[in-house]
Amino acid sequence: MKHFEKIAHSFLVLGFLVGLLAIFKVRYDTSGQFWVILALALFYLIWGFIYHSVKGDLARKLILEYLLIALICAVAAFGVFAS
Q: Sign of torsion, CA 52 57 60 64?
């Protein structure tokens, strides 16, 4: 299981690095940055569901936690880029 965790977390870090590069690439387009951040939040949400599902410890509390974090990111992005 340790090997799985290393691969899973490496995939998460790689996904966030790709997201950071995408934000940098669209740095002059606030709409593009907003969509990249929403995509990152969705990626994090899906990654968390799959990760805990494979580990066998996916619970309602974890689902709520991942949903809440993704929602906070989406609301913060909207607050920053809507103005």
A: negative
Q: In the numeric block, which tokens belong to residue 43?
A: 């990626």
47 and 11 Cβ atoms separated by less than 8 Å? yes
Domain ranges of the chain: 2-81
Listed in sequence order, the residues at least 6 apart from 31 whose beta carbon sits closer than 8 Å to its beta carbon are 81
Q: Specify the amino acid at residue 13.
A: V
What is the mean pLDDT of the segment spanning 22-40?
94
Three-state DSSP class for residue 83: coil
Beta-sheet strands, E only, within 1-83 = none
Check the CA dihedral 33-39-42-43 and report its sign.
Answer: negative
Please, are residues 69 and 33 in contact by the beta-carbon 8 Å criterion?
no
**83 pLDDT above the threshold of 80:** no
The residue type found at 36 is V
Place of tokens 């689902």: 63
